[in-house]
Amino acid sequence: MKLLGIGDNVLDDYRWRQELYPGGNSVNVPVLARRYDGSTAAYIGVLADDGAGLHFASALREEGVDISRVRVMHGISARNYIELDEAGDRHFVGNNGRETAQYQALLCLTPGDYAMMEQYDLAHTSIHSWLDAYHPAISRRVPLSLDFSGEYDRVNIAQLCPLLRFAFFSGGAASEEEVRALARTALDAGARTVVVTMGVRGSYLLEQGREHRQECVRADVVDALGAGDAFIAAFLAEYHAGGGDLADAAQKASVFAAQCCGHYGAFGHAMPHPDRCAGEQADLCFII
User: What pLDDT is recorded for position 87?
Assistant: First the structure.
């Protein structure tokens, strides 16, 4: 599969470990798809030129991701501040929001970006990427996958789902009935394949004429951050390779998501937190 991620990136700031980990749904999905089965992966987005941003770019190169269309802007890398509970579940406790290069230089797609899209089987983005105005143009060039996360309502479902080949939602706090109703709403709005993940309860998948209820796979959890993105990545890769086998793709994606709970960060590549560095030693933390 040839998978292109477009949009958000962020460094997950594990303050109790004093480490930063590259992440963001639009980055994680192509990286993890490549890890899963060697899929061709690329990413279009904005990175900062600080030490953390340089580390991020280096990690993507090491993972074999094409970043030739990444913009590098002067500024501060975006961070989410993360805490984990005893079960390994992540909790976001803040971010550096408007101080970041990603916020101050929003991604604007160009003819070169659109030309790249046409070389890929699928583009994936997220509701956090601020690309709503570009979704119609993207979907005219390449099938589009979107992660709504847990931030959705009937208005943006109605607006976006007609453009989507795949629609992903997080429904961990929803009842089984609410999950099924959400999936039906998205399908009726135009998405061709709808997936609602529910954490430890597994996932629910719906297409016209078929549905599948997938149980989660037991995991030895170190860190559950990125497990949902791992599910998406493996599902897309398996669905593509298997010719649209919904149940098989969901089962294999659950196995991969469980495996990804065994390490910190969405795909590793920790760097020391800048607060650990001082004076002349600071540069040592940003060697790439």
Answer: 67
Beta-carbon-side half-sphere exposure of residue 176 (alpha carbons within 13 Å)? 7
**Residue spans of the chain under pLDDT 50:** 278-288
pLDDT digits (tens, 9 = 90+) for 223-237: 888 999 999 999 999
pTM above 0.90, yes or no: yes
Q: Which residues contact 117 (CB under 8 A, 6 or more apart)?
A: 4, 6, 123, 138, 141, 142
Task: Say whether 7 sits in a helix, a strand or coil.
Answer: coil
What is the tens place of the pLDDT at every residue in 127-183? 999 999 999 999 999 999 999 998 888 788 999 999 999 999 999 889 999 999 999
What 3-state class would DSSP assign to 225? coil
- Picking from 229, 253, 249, 252, the residue whose alpha carbon sits closest to that of residue 239 is 249
191's tokens: 């998405």
C-alpha distances in angstroms, 163 versus 53, 65, 123, 146?
A: 32, 26, 12, 10
CA distance 136 to 144: 9
Burial class (CB in 10 A: 0-12, 13-18, 19+), 32: buried
**CA–CA distance, 288 with 244 (Å, rounded to integer):** 40
d(CA 123, CA 164): 10
Q: How do the domains of the chain map onto residue ranges?
A: 2-281
Fold of 2-281: UDP-N-acetylmuramoyl-L-alanine:D-glutamate ligase (3.40.1190)
Q: Is 24 exposed, middle or buried (0-12, 13-18, 19+ CB in 10 A)?
A: buried
Q: How far is CA 216 from the centre of its chain?
A: 19
Q: How far apart are CA 226 and CA 158, in angstroms?
A: 27
